[in-house]
């Protein structure tokens, strides 16, 4: 079995895939988030993993758009504790560092630490593991990368500083994607993700949410995204507790379909656990 | 009177400021969005203008965060039609173009046009006007910029292709910021923006929205952002029709304050118009 993830070896998406699948399946790197979706859709990969939300940065909106554009099912989720490390080639000390590579979110998450340095140049790259790969491949002696501890091991880099993120409550939620829906067992705590659009009228969203509130169903997340070609109309993405196996949830979804213009269940899946990544030589 | 905008001369934010203030006030360029907020907060500038939402790309979430972090009032809004142009130095033809500079959103908005070119290198910069400035300042002969028509005039560049955006329904909404609230006149159609957080309990958001629905107040926009340090709790940003000058709206806000943990009115302001930028030699 193979799982597609975006980024280089050592990327947080790969660490999340390893935690979720327990290392039994092979994680395969792709260049773009959308490649994760198309790889699974075309049957080249059995599963895909994408980041959907970070506790500091918020939702990864592009991936919400892709969920709508591609015909896949969410079959699981996992929460990964994110810790950032400043990495450099052997022999390089903090004193030599004039440039730092990372993903823009990496810089954003380590602002306080970066403010304490003598203004190095910050160079954005496509993901934090790519930053580690660049300084290694090019043997850079004046540069460092903000990346994961796993990248330090994978690219044989030195750790200049550890846990440099401003806020320790730094958690990313990842979704598992598959062509086939998850076959839910009633014994597991489940969650359902749904996307819908409403008639453009007063009270429409309130009415949409009422189908859950009236049945005491817990709403876990709401996100809105623009409808292309219809300025300032929105698609709403909701996560709620339970699944269609439960009668109130089944009724709520039927009720929702009555009052929406468009409605699609993106997936029903077991509530994810919080994983602290294990770093391993490999 | 001065208005701070982010980006180089010719940026869409500057065009929006000119449309909003009718060219009577001086628009002053700053480097970062946050500089717009701090400039107004410290009294260096009378007004600030920020993009908050694009009809294709969605909300500019960072600016929602800054609205919460800074103690300013929204006093107005304007919607600007966005058109993208491919610009180059005099003498450069499409045939010479190996590299294209723009803001990532500029590339995103012109995907179909870009797919028709023989894969030029795409180089992201901080805003579309900066892209025009770079090719001009460095006299680049193998490069083009995706930018505004105003940037073509300001930097004396040649237009290689016009209106290259995929979707013509491309509109950005801008907010006007000031230290003092807008003094509303009852004769104008008004809108109010509010931010709040809720107790983490089932039905909380439904209850929050009910204060508007029960009074037939139209909700125009909802956006959620993470609360830092409290993983997977959210701040909600709502825009609704009317202002506290209207009794139902005043009652709804009082009701909202009863049931929220935190609640702040970000501003009440006249509903904005849609402007098509005028391009002028200056």
Describe the structure concisely:
Two copies of one chain form a homodimer. Helix content of chain A is 28%, strand content 34%.
Report on this model:
Two copies of one chain form a homodimer. By secondary structure, chain A is of the alpha/beta class. Chain A has three domains: 2-82 and 170-181, D-Maltodextrin-Binding Protein, domain 2; 85-161, D-Maltodextrin-Binding Protein, domain 2, CATH 3.40.190.10; 190-270, ACT domain (Alpha-Beta Plaits). Chain A is built from nine helices and 16 strands. The first copy, chain A, has helices spanning 12-21, 33-41, 61-69, 104-109, 111-115, 128-137, 149-154, 204-213, 247-259; strands at residues 2-6, 26-30, 47-54, 58-59, 73-81, 85-88, 99-102, 121-124, 143-147, 158-161, 171-178, 190-198, 219-226, 234-241, 260-270, 274-275. In chain A, strand 3 (47-54) and strand 4 (58-59) form a beta hairpin. In chain A, helix 8 packs antiparallel against helix 9 (247-259). The longest helix of chain A is centred in the last third of the chain and has 13 residues, at 247-259. The two termini of chain A are 19 Å apart. The interface between A and B is large, with 38 and 38 residues.
């Amino acid at each position: 079995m193979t799982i597609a993830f975006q980024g280089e070896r050592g990327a947080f998406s790969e660490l999340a895939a390893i935690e979720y699948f327990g290392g039994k399946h092979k994680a395969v790197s792709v260049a773009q988030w959308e490649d994760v979706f198309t790889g699974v859709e075309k049957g080249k990969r059995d599963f895909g993993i994408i980041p959907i939300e970070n506790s500091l940065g918020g939702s990864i909106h592009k991936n919400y758009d892709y969920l709508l554009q591609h015909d896949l099912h969410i079959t699981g989720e996992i929460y990964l504790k994110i810790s950032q490390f400043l990495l450099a080639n052997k022999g390089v000390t903090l004193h030599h560092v004039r440039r730092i590579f990372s993903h823009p979110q990496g810089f954003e998450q380590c602002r306080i630490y970066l403010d304490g340095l003598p203004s190095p140049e910050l160079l954005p790259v496509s993901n934090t593991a790519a930053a580690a790969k660049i300084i290694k491949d090019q043997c850079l002696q004046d540069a460092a990368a903000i990346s994961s501890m796993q990248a330090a091991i994978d690219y044989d880099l030195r750790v200049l500083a550890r846990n440099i993120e401003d806020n320790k409550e730094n958690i990313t939620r990842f979704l598992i994607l598959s062509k086939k829906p998850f076959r839910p067992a009633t014994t597991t705590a489940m969650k359902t993700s749904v996307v819908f659009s409403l008639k453009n009228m007063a009270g429409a969203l309130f009415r949409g949410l009422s189908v859950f509130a009236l049945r005491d169903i817990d709403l876990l997340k709401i996100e809105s995204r623009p409808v292309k070609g219809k300025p300032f109309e929105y698609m709403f993405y909701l996560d709620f507790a339970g699944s269609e196996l439960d009668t109130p949830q089944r009724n709520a979804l039927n009720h929702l379909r009555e009052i929406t213009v468009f409605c699609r269940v993106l997936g029903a899946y077991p509530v994810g656990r919080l994983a602290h990544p294990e770093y391993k030589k490999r």
